[in-house]
Specification:
mainly alpha; about 475 residues; globular; about 80% helix
């Protein structure tokens, strides 16, 4: 047991009432219908679901707009986004520390500390933004070479990636503002901000991709310009919300922006494992992308596999939306209950949210399986039969494990609300690097199963990660952590 857990356990054994509640963890308790809790979860979840669905829709519109430029352009954007995530998602993980701290101080009724956390979060994300710009610009060409991108893909993807990284601070601040408001229980304001951002996003994409008025057509690079221009507007709105003093998280002139390294470390202690988890996942995605790209030796087959993978991920992204929204809700509800020193209520909220996620993603999994042909056809403008075949197989195989994906995502959020972010990192490493990558390589490269072997490995690793994450929440160690 780590020193962190030992210190917490010592406090509990000195008389904390949580000692008795720790022993009563039983999943069956949360299968009973609790209308009040379901109502709370629903009220918090629906704005996040709508915002995420809108974001996923805009992502699909991006792919659709780019797909009209050809299969090579679709593959370039899909590959670029996977590579960008290697760098960018590490900072997205850091915002979990901000969300958890805001949630717990909100539960403890400490608005002064909520303001301090907000100020320190801005400082941390400003520093992280500088690092992302430098690392992203320096690594972009190398990352494309690592995954074996051909000359045509490199020429299309490089300008897209460089522009995306150069303007990435606007996206990072959007993540941060939304996370803090959500941690305080305000889900509607981030939704409204995302509506504005995404409407502007679509308009800017059309202008910059195809050209309009005085703006020349930029093609693939225009997709990056449209994304980041809309995020710049979102950053301005976010600062206005925080400094207005009318919302759940407030920043005033009295709040110090001088670095408070003790508070920063408390946030990083929660956020760094999540950042590590995102890096591990995206690096694994990069390696998995290599398997996909090399599952065929003929050029047009490679491009078809990459295009189908890109379209499949974007299409499947809709199934993630309820689980991702419920993960945010779980972090907020569990964090606020832990802040109020009520672990029994935190456990009840975590399981209820997780079970709702399983039910929602099971329904979506059925839809993906049944309508896989129609979904892929929408984004296969050229009517490439190989893209259709590979994309449909991807959707149907992964649709079968949607309930386990829900467990992995939602229960990870519940653990994050308690500040327990290390265990999900370990499970991600195991499922992605020990299971998915070796198994996909063996099935595709050694046993000759073909590209479907990669999809089978992805599904198996998803089941394992979901079971491990849910089982950890079923344990008691997360109840002992104090942030």
């Amino acid at each position: 047991m780590s020193a962190r857990y030992c210190d917490a356990f010592a406090r509990v054994t000195r008389g904390d009432v949580l000692r008795e509640r720790m022993l009563g963890s039983r999943l069956v308790q949360y299968l009973r219908l609790d209308i009040a809790l379901l109502n709370v979860i629903g009220q918090l979840a629906y704005p996040v679901v709508l915002a995420n669905l809108l974001q996923a829709t805009v992502g699909l519109i991006d792919i659709w707009m780019v797909s009209r430029l050809g299969t090579e352009s679709t593959a370039a954007v899909g590959m670029s986004r996977q590579l960008i995530n290697v760098v960018l998602f590490s900072t997205a993980g850091l915002v979990v520390g901000s969300r958890t701290m805001v949630a717990q101080f909100t539960g403890a009724k400490r608005p002064d500390m909520v303001s301090r956390v907000a100020a320190q979060s801005i400082i941390v994300m400003l520093l992280a933004s500088v690092a992302v710009i430098v690392v992203g610009i320096l690594l972009s060409p190398a990352l494309l070479q690592v995954v074996g991108a051909g000359p045509e893909l490199v020429s299309l993807a490089t300008p897209y990636m460089l522009l995306f990284f150069a303007l990435s601070p606007f996206l990072i601040f959007n993540f941060t503002f939304n996370a803090m408001l959500q941690g305080a229980g305000d889900m509607k304001t981030p939704m409204v901000i995302m509506v504005v951002i995404n409407v502007i996003h679509v308009l800017f994409n059309y202008v910059f991709i195809y050209g309009a008025g005085p703006f020349p057509a930029m093609g693939v690079t225009g997709a990056a310009m449209g994304t980041m221009a809309s995020r710049f507007v979102g950053t301005l709105i976010g600062f206005g919300v925080l400094f207005s003093g009318r919302f759940a998280v407030k920043l005033s002139r009295d709040v110090s922006f001088r670095p408070d390294w003790s508070l920063v470390w408390r946030m990083l202690r929660i956020g760094l494992p999540v950042a590590g988890q995102n890096v591990v996942r995206t690096l694994a995605g990069l390696a998995f992308l290599w398997v996909v790209a090399n599952a065929a030796t003929v050029g047009f087959e490679q491009q078809a596999n990459l295009a189908a993978y890109s379209v499949g991920i974007q299409s499947e992204g809709f199934s993630f939306m309820p689980a991702l929204a419920l993960s945010v809700v779980a972090t907020t509800l569990v964090g606020q209950a832990q802040g109020a020193r009520d672990s029994a209520e935190a456990e009840r909220r975590g399981w209820a949210t997780g079970l709702i996620g399983v039910a929602a993603m099971s329904v979506i999994g059925v839809i993906l399986f049944v309508f896989a042909d129609q979904i892929i056809a929408v984004f296969n403008e050229a009517g490439d039969p190989l893209v259709a075949q590979v994309g449909v197989a991807y959707l149907r195989i992964n649709a079968l494990v949607e309930p386990f994906l829900a467990l992995s995502i939602v229960m990870r959020g519940a653990l994050g609300g308690a500040g327990d972010t290390r265990a999900p990192l370990y499970y991600t490493i195991f499922s992605q690097w020990v299971i998915r990558l070796p198994l996909s390589y063996a099935l595709v490269m050694l046993l000759g199963v073909g590209i479907n072997g990669a999809w089978y490995a992805m599904a198996i690793s998803t089941v394992i990660q979901g079971v491990l994450t849910a089982n950890h929440f079923r344990g008691n160690l997360w109840k002992l952590i104090r942030v």
